[in-house]
Write a structure and sequence with these properties.
By secondary structure, this protein is mainly alpha-helical. It has one domain (1-102, 134-341). The protein has helices spanning 2-14, 19-33, 39-50, 56-99, 106-131, 135-149, 154-172, 179-207, 215-228, 233-247, 253-265, 273-305, 308-314, 316-344, 348-362, 368-385.
């Protein structure tokens, strides 16, 4: 438990770059270095995480904690991954409220982003060799990349990839009795539980819609968002704007953009944007309550769906579905990495940092945490010199 806590406290402190980068760092730590889970198991958890609402990297931390140490591990790993980022964001919010501006971290991000590109590429390479087991899965992954670039919804891509792979498996093999029922049974419970929870939360938020600002209505808003949100930080922005700016009128457009900016530039989950908003609206108590509200559904969904992953893998048909989802999940990671690379690799220094980091990762197996720290220092020196 101590090792689990220390690992995710560290990752929550240095985890710049968004969910793809966080998952790559977790793969480096729990698969390559510690051997807590196999690559096959890790990829299955990535696929399962993409099928439920909420912050993907946080849910991966929760999954790993549950795999390693049961329900106590589930709580510990998730809390330790969230805590450092929340404290950093709360400090930024304090500075924002006190001084009316955000801390400048451009130099740190300048050096960290190229390192993140190398970390994610290394993870994609190692995970891809395990996940892409057949020409069919390679084709599914390539198609998912293409449709993702065209702007197709991420959840739709995952579901189509899974259903297509399962259907081809059904056609090309002799189905076992009850095979079609096994896949339905594997997913019916988490889907029904997620839907029921979302309906309850949405109903509670609607009932509170007539009230002025208060801690309980705010908690319900963030609980609803955490229960139904799929997709990137841009989707989170849309949800926050609809609820907090247009419906409740608690925030201005400028405050919302500042909150999302802090979530993007600080380490850890982007959902810590809720921490910033809570602090701006009601100080430290509101920041804590907003953080609990937006992350609580992730713990519930993983607790419900996590035990079903081994059952899914044991069913040939459901396992084929999960294989398709896994291939599409890695494809989505690749597209995110490409887009991040277009922003991060802007000159010879950032390109050099990415290449050097890749060599140190692949050839010398250097811990990605040291590379992130080194990139941050390089960025600070560059900002100081210029």
């Amino acid at each position: 438990m101590k090792e689990l806590a220390w690992l995710f406290l560290k990752l929550g402190t240095i985890g710049f770059g968004g969910p793809a980068a966080h998952i790559a760092m977790m793969e480096d730590e729990v698969v390559r270095r510690r051997g807590w889970v196999t690559r096959e198991k890790f990829i299955d958890l990535v696929g399962a995480t993409n099928l439920i609402p909420g912050p993907n990297s946080t849910e991966m931390a929760i999954h790993i904690g549950m795999t390693r140490a049961g329900f106590p591990g589930l709580l510990l790993a998730g809390a330790c991954f969230i805590l450092p980022a929340s404290l950093i964001v709360m400090a930024c919010a304090w500075a924002y409220v006190r001084f009316g501006a955000l801390p400048q971290v451009d130099g740190i991000l300048y050096g960290v982003k190229p390192v993140i590109i190398a970390v994610v590429l290394q993870a994609l390479s190692s995970l891809g060799r395990v996940a892409v087991k057949t020409p069919l899965l390679a084709g599914v992954g390539i198609a998912a990349v293409g449709f993702s670039i065209l702007g197709v919804n991420e959840l739709l891509l995952l579901l189509v990839a899974g259903v297509l792979t399962a259907a081809i498996h059904w056609v090309t093999t002799t189905p076992t009795p009850g095979g079609s029922l096994s896949i339905a049974a594997s997913f019916a419970s988490p889907v029904a539980a997620n839907g029921a929870m979302s309906a309850v939360v949405a109903g509670g938020a609607a009932a509170a819609a007539t009230l002025p600002f208060g801690l309980w209505p705010m908690f319900l808003v963030f609980l609803k968002i955490g229960s139904v949100l799929y997709g990137s930080g841009y989707v989170l922005l849309a949800f926050l704007r609809a609820d907090l700016v247009e419906h409740w009128h608690w925030l201005s457009e400028a405050q919302l953009l500042d909150a999302v900016a802090v979530g993007q530039i600080t380490p850890g989950p982007v959902f810590t944007t809720a921490t910033f908003i809570g602090y701006v609206l009601g100080g430290a108590p509101a920041a804590v309550l907003a953080t609990v509200g937006i992350f609580l559904p992730a713990f519930c969904f993983v607790a419900i769906s996590g035990p079903l992953v081994p059952r899914i893998r044991r069913s040939p048909l459901a396992g084929a579905f999960l294989d398709g989802v896994n291939a599409a999940s890695l494809a989505l990671m690749a597209v995110v990495t490409w887009r991040l690379g277009a922003v991060a690799l802007v000159d010879w220094l950032t390109l050099s940092l990415a290449v050097i980091s890749a060599v140190l990762l692949i050839r010398f197996k250097l811990n990605s945490a040291w590379l992130v720290v080194g990139g941050a220092l390089a960025g600070l020196v560059k900002a100081w010199v210029s």
